[in-house]
Amino acid sequence: MHNKSISELSAGLRQGAFSSVELTRHFLDRIARHDERLNAYITRTEEAALAGARAADARIAAGEAGPLTGIPIAHKDIFCTDGIRTTCGSRMLERFTAPYDATVVSRFKQAGAVVLGKTNMDEFAMGSSNETSYYGAVRNPWDTTRVPGGSSGGSAAAVAARLCVAATGTDTGGSIRQPAALCGITGLKPTYGRVSRYGMIAFASSLDQAGPMAASAEDAATLLQAMAGFDERDSTSAQEPVPDYSAALGGDLAGVRIGLPKEYFGAGLDPAVAASVEQAIDEYRRLGAEVVEISLPNTSLAVPVYYVVAPAECSSNLARFDGVRYGHRCEAPRDLEDLYKRSRAEGFGPEVKRRIMIGTYALSAGYYDAYYLKAQQIRHLISDDFARAFREVDVILGPTTPGTAFALGEKADDPVSMYLSDIYTIAVNLAGLPGISVPVAPADGRPVGLQLIGNYFQEARLLNLAHRLQQATDWHKAAPAEFE
Amino acid sequence: MQWETVIGLEIHAQLATRSKIFSGASTAFGAAPNTQACNIDLGLPGVLPVLNREVVRMAVRFATAIDAELGRRSVFARKNYFYPDLPKGYQISQYELPIVGRGHVEILLEEGAAKRIGVTRAHLEEDAGKSLHEDFHGSTGIDLNRAGTPLLEIVSEPDMRSAREAVAYARKIHQIVQYLGICDGNMQEGSFRCDANVSVRPMGEDRLGTRAELKNINSFRFLERAINFEVERQIDLIESGGKVVQETRLYDAARDETRSMRTKEEANDYRYFPDPDLLPVELDDAFIEAVRSDMPELPDAKRQRFSEAYGLSAYDASVVTASLSLADYFETVAEAAGDAKLAANWVMGELAAALNKENLEIGSSPVDAPRLGAMLRRIADNTISGKIAKQVFEAMWNGEGGADEIIEARGLKQITDSGAIERVVDEVIAANPQQVESYRGAEAAKQGKMLGFFVGQVMKASQGKANPKQVNELLRQKLS
């Protein structure tokens, strides 16, 4: 049952082959059986899930079911959920329960999806390995000595091990695509503004974007359909109409121009990963696409720019966690200064503190022009690179990450090497473009992700390209044996 | 040495919107603590601000009123600092690109001359909450009802040269925002707050001296006092060999002094940067045109019109246009009375005194404008005398009804029947033979004054109701 697609499950529910309660129990059982090894969930919501499943069954019986009604999913623990704790992977919010639902959460509620729980993540989405979570590292279902990637590592591992049908994630510099690649699933970061950020705890507001993480492009399309659209509570959400993503699947690739940025295939790329990507490129050629080399000359500036912009915004976004109104407060503060210092010192982990300090520095008087302003200027250059490329090609293709999943602890003490694992994904956020990671042939038994980058609001095209590859190959169907 | 004072003001005008600048919570004053703070005002994780369009309209109105350049593209920025009543750890304000650019207003100096004061800029921002230090036994209470209330911060050029000028400028801005209907101007409730940047320099010097910023000033009177104290303090300091340091000083009204709050070194580095949660505000021509075509009459124009249409002196016109509510009151009275000068005298005299005595604003006057106007019409048509009118006014003030009702009930109608007046005059003449004799024997120049005695007696005998003009005429006739 857990290896079925959303449309198969939805058909099964409507035909009465099984109920949503049965389906939900099946996934709850799997979580109970397997999650101790993976630590993909921070909070499990068995009772709420079963209540949701019963409601979904009633809706199905009444003939009012949509494609997600009764489908068990999981939310990254960065989305506020009314009445269910939201930790954001941090000690700071260990006992925080929001009094409201994020827009993404309420849209899935309206669609009738069943929520199994809240998935693990790097603390405040800051990390590329899920090791910065206060709730412990998540393990990669393909090799539990390795990381699942991050920051949406819990969602990626849960989908890969089939501890949920699909999950939500957020992506600020690669946090959906990189763990999707490392766990062998499909993950889409939509265009900035495509999905509302309301109720999603902010890391870097100008980069954050929520998206679907699923077993296939087809499933991802169904999820995105529920998530996308303008929200009056988010001024940065786009008024752009939402197309029918599922209807766009299956479109012909003949004549589609795919650009390979030479900067994405240079030094630093694991040859085994490169080989897997090459195989997929050959598939696209067979499907009728035209493949050309392009250049994104400012690629090497993306990581340094990101590590000014994202920390700068986070230093401000995380100021609200001060121990005054909610969240962790230190014991017996002597005075206000002490309350601030100890609450924050105790509530935040080292990576979060590192970024707050970098960001505070970058915005300080006398440094602002040299760092923040300069970074914003370079950000424009990076966007211009893509704009030029999209005058020549329809879509850009490359590896999602330079290597496969690394061992737990391998990069934990080397932030720069960790930051470089997002080298191919970060520029996409800086430009606000959509990007999708699709599993291709594994390397050394570990998943490899292929990234497709589209022009603004071209999610349908990306999903179609991913879908055509998944129709032509079986790479996305591979499942980690240990969790069968 | 001769010193010159240089003053610039930063005025925070709370915009009179129903809901907050970035949330739908109410802005009403005086609700129980934290009952008007929604998820957004509380700065909960995940919430986002959405700009209230009304504040933009109000800012554009203000820009139009002070003939300012408009920031066609203005940007909200975050001003980062930690404070318990600042829920997000930053205040959303405007920094490099404000919505209102350079403009100016004219103030009237005592000598009657006008002076132009430059406005550097005005920008939109959200207010913080309030920290409550009383009643919490060593702890601090936080009330976030005010958090997110829209403010327009109006920054002047350092164009003022005395406390008086500063007050005149502050009053002018106060008057304009009220006329525009964008601020209620209530200084007690903090809807209109002034900070003053004050420095001194030797007369003739071009460079500005080091300034102190004075805060916590909640009336025009205190603004004048705080500046005067500070100017004296700075001059004394320099003359005794000291140096003024750049700092923020709090005005203590009880002691009538300013005290250092923090120096420049202790000042926060606010780490301003554009708020990524809000789009830049782009003003299009249609929006600006719509605001401009819907502007109310402004104070200067109203003053001019009053002085022309109602024949008021420049002084009277400026007094009755001091606030929009007073001007509206006056205009209603004048129309109803049919005599503008009489209306001006009453509004600025009897009414102002009565309001002042009970510490009331014009808006809460027990005698409304139509009633006062109706009473003044009874003076103009000789139904009552000005003196009787004071009695009628007092009765109206005490809630005894309208003028006609009171005149009727108390029998205050003026006696204009010459036969009736003549009878009283004859009685008075008959009862005072001695005075009559001395009057008749006096020189013409002195008679005028002596006539007053007889007028007084007649008025007394008629309980003030005899028409004074007729009484005078009859007495003159009969005594000659």
TrEMBL record, chain A:
Which transformation does this protein catalyse, written as a reaction? L-glutamyl-tRNA(Gln) + L-glutamine + ATP + H2O = L-glutaminyl-tRNA(Gln) + L-glutamate + ADP + phosphate + H(+)
Report any one BP term from Gene Ontology.
Answer: translation
Q: Which Gene Ontology molecular function entries are recorded, alphabetically?
A: ATP binding; glutaminyl-tRNA synthase (glutamine-hydrolyzing) activity; transferase activity
Q: Tell me its EC number(s), please.
A: 6.3.5.7
Answer yes or no on keyword Protein biosynthesis: yes
What Gene3D superfamilies does the database record attribute to this sequence?
Amidase signature (AS) domain (3.90.1300.10)
Q: Which InterPro entries match?
A: Amidase, Amidase_CS, Amidase_dom, AS_sf, GatA
List the active-site residues: K76, S151, S175
Domain (Amidase) spans: 22-463
Q: Which domain of life is it from?
A: Bacteria
- What top-level class of enzyme does the UniProt entry assign? ligase
**A GO term from the CC aspect:** glutamyl-tRNA(Gln) amidotransferase complex
NCBIfam families named in the record: gatA
Q: How does it assemble?
A: Heterotrimer of A, B and C subunits.
- Please report which protein family the annotation says this sequence is part of: Belongs to the amidase family. GatA subfamily.
Q: What is this protein called?
A: Glutamyl-tRNA(Gln) amidotransferase subunit A
Q: Which organism is it from?
A: Candidatus Sedimenticola endophacoides
UniProtKB/TrEMBL annotation, chain B:
Question: What processes in GO biological process is this protein linked to?
Answer: glutaminyl-tRNAGln biosynthesis via transamidation; translation
UniProt GO MF annotations: ATP binding; glutaminyl-tRNA synthase (glutamine-hydrolyzing) activity; transferase activity
Q: Which residues form the Asn/Gln amidotransferase domain?
A: 328-479
Pfam families in alphabetical order: GatB_N, GatB_Yqey
Q: Which InterPro entries match?
A: Asn/Gln-tRNA_amidoTrfase_suB/E, Asn/Gln-tRNA_Trfase_suB/E_cat, Asn/Gln_amidotransferase, Asn/Gln_tRNA_amidoTrase-B-like, GatB, GatB_C_1, GatB_Yqey_C_2, Gln-tRNA_amidoTrfase_suB_CS
Instruction: Keywords in alphabetical order, please.
Output: ATP-binding, Ligase, Nucleotide-binding, Protein biosynthesis, Transferase
Matching SMART domains: GatB_Yqey
The yes or no answer to whether the keyword Glycosyltransferase is present is no
Major enzyme class: ligase
Q: Which reaction does it catalyse?
A: L-glutamyl-tRNA(Gln) + L-glutamine + ATP + H2O = L-glutaminyl-tRNA(Gln) + L-glutamate + ADP + phosphate + H(+); L-aspartyl-tRNA(Asn) + L-glutamine + ATP + H2O = L-asparaginyl-tRNA(Asn) + L-glutamate + ADP + phosphate + 2 H(+)
| Origin superkingdom | Bacteria
EC assignment: 6.3.5.-
Spell out the PROSITE patterns in the cross-references.
Answer: GATB (PS01234)
Biological role stated in the UniProt entry: Allows the formation of correctly charged Asn-tRNA(Asn) or Gln-tRNA(Gln) through the transamidation of misacylated Asp-tRNA(Asn) or Glu-tRNA(Gln) in organisms which lack either or both of asparaginyl-tRNA or glutaminyl-tRNA synthetases. The reaction takes place in the presence of glutamine and ATP through an activated phospho-Asp-tRNA(Asn) or phospho-Glu-tRNA(Gln).
Family, similarity comment: Belongs to the GatB/GatE family. GatB subfamily.
What NCBIfam families does the annotation carry?
A: gatB, PRK05477.1-2, PRK05477.1-4, PRK05477.1-5
User: How does the annotation summarize its subunit structure?
Assistant: Heterotrimer of A, B and C subunits.
Name of the protein: Aspartyl/glutamyl-tRNA(Asn/Gln) amidotransferase subunit B
Could you tell me which species this protein originates from? Candidatus Sedimenticola endophacoides
